[in-house]
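Record minuted for completeness.

…
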Amino acid sequence: MFGSFLLMLSYLSGRADAYSEYFLQTCHSSKLDLSDMVYVESYYFNRIKYLVFNSTYGKFVGYTEVGERLAEAYNSNEAFLTDEQNVVNRYCNPAVRLYKTYGIRFISEPRVKLSLGKPFSDNHPGMLVCSAYDFYPKMIHMSWYRNGQKVTSDVLATEELADGDWFYQSHSHLEFTPKTGEKITCVVEHISFNKSREFVWDSSMLESERNKVAIGAAGLVLGLVVCTAGLLYYRKKSQGWIMVPPAFEFITH
């Protein structure tokens, strides 16, 4: 995910030595344009969740016997469901836009790098790593595309990691089988970008790496041949030498 814009409103009733009930209203979005905004309303009794409304499904779901009865009653009221659904536009979207405008006073653009890594499994011989460094705020979304098609398998992403200096880093891994001419792209979304940015892996880099390995191996073999020839030449020449003890000259005054 791009990370969630999360806004919460809670209500609590009850006493510390008795039963307690509360509910949470949360707004989640993973896109810069807020087109996937989701409103979730969750009800708890003594820390047990018993009823949830999710705007994605447009209905209540019960998690206990009491919750199921309440969900059935609420879902039969079309006007009430419509009002709950409208919270997305009435509350969530305006609140998040306000936060984006005034709540984020410091923004740092991620520095993105593509590199080769060691595969985590034996399913594929290669692995690409898309790394984002020194970004703020924390929310970021990284996805992979192969020849224009989004990749959903063989992808492993890490959580955003704090650098300890207000900045974050994140890494996404794609295991793959190298193919000549293949275009692999890492798409990065961050609030510091006006739109998502694409970082393309050049498949010719793989050929370059193979050439470097081949050249290195050939150089090593040539070095061994030259070294062996030199050693044989030295041994052959040394067999005809006679070691003469050094002469000492005594000078007297």
